[in-house]
């Protein structure tokens, strides 16, 4: 059985004071829900403040990005060793990073290797644009992103074969922040027929069945259960709805059920 996993990606929202307020609203409800791995991913500026509020809870903390180098003259970047001092998770390859900041399959791959080498659990994002979707290229694009993003990885790199050091998030780009979610059946089909087979090519059938794959893209408390009922979807990477305590708690509760 794969443990459900729900992560909240706050993107570039919330000052430190706002982050503290939101976490204080969330913690009691999230703590009451067992059997789900829960992670909050605030901006870098709020990581330390949020970490303090999550101490002693079962709620994980993640960053939204890293650089692949351990240190150096990279103004404005954050190294994996810096991130690993504060949290245990990191989002890599989000479509906004690919679209707005020039990330490629190759740089995503470098970040994946660097994160895992520093003991971070990677939430690797893959997904096709609307143009690619309408052109029938979903399988080609998503399979390529999985294979190139994880190129050169082996089970020993995941910490004595612990596949839990990696989570995949399928986020069709056309569904992110648009209010237009994919159908649950359609998303499950991509996971079952594209992502798991691509993963199997790299790390074997056992790893393919053990890896947790999330759905992301306009997930709300009102539609989360539809996705979580699908056999190959193990949770969600939540954007806008993770900025509202009741919504995010509702999504986590749907994963529990």
Structure description:
42% of the residues lie in helices and 15% in strands. Strands 7-6-5-4-3-2-1-8 form an eight-stranded parallel sheet. It has a single domain, classed as Alpha-Beta Barrel (TIM Barrel), CATH 3.20.20. With 257 residues, the protein is α/β, with parallel strands linked by helices. It has eleven helices and eight strands. Helix 3 (80-84) links the parallel strand 3 (59-63) and strand 4. The chain has helices at residues 16-31, 47-54, 80-84, 95-100, 105-117, 130-134, 138-149, 184-203, 205-210, 224-228, 245-256, and strands at residues 5-9, 37-41, 59-63, 89-92, 121-126, 166-170, 212-215, 235-238. Helix 1 (16-31) runs parallel beside helix 11, helix 5 packs across helix 7 (138-149) and helix 7 packs across helix 8 (184-203). The longest helix is centred in the C-terminal third of the chain and has 20 residues, at 184-203. It is globular and about 45 Å long.
- Average the pLDDT over all residues and give the rounded result: 94
CATH topology: TIM Barrel
By helix and strand content, what is the structural category?
alpha/beta
Total domains, how many? 1
Q: State the CATH class.
A: Alpha Beta
Shape estimate: globular
Strand order of the largest sheet: 7-6-5-4-3-2-1-8
Compute the number of strand runs. Answer: 8
């Amino acid at each position: 059985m794969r443990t459900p996993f729900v992560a909240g990606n706050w993107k570039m929202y919330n000052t430190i004071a706002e982050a503290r307020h939101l976490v204080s609203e969330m913690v009691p409800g999230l703590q009451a829900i067992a059997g789900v791995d829960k992670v909050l991913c605030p901006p870098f500026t709020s990581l330390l403040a949020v970490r303090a509020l999550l101490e002693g809870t079962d709620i994980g903390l993640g960053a939204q990005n890293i650089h692949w180098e351990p240190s150096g003259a990279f103004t404005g970047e954050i190294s994996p060793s810096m991130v690993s001092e504060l949290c245990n998770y990191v989002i890599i390859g989000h479509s906004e990073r690919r679209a707005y900041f020039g990330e490629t399959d190759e740089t995503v791959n470098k970040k994946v290797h660097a994160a895992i080498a520093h003991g971070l659990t990677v939430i690797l994002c893959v997904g096709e644009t609307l143009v690619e979707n309408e052109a029938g290229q979903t399988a080609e694009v998503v399979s390529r992103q999985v294979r190139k993003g994880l190129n050169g990885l082996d089970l020993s790199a995941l910490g004595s074969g612990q596949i839990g050091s990696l989570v995949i998030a399928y986020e069709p780009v056309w569904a992110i922040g648009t209010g237009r979610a994919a159908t649950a059946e359609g998303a499950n089909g991509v996971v079952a027929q594209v992502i798991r087979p691509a993963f199997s090519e790299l790390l074997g059938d056992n790893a393919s069945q053990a890896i947790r794959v999330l759905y992301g893209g306009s997930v709300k408390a009102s539609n989360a259960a539809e996705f979580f009922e699908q056999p190959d979807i193990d949770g969600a990477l939540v954007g806008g709805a993770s900025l509202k305590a009741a919504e995010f708690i509702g999504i986590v509760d749907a994963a529990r059920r």
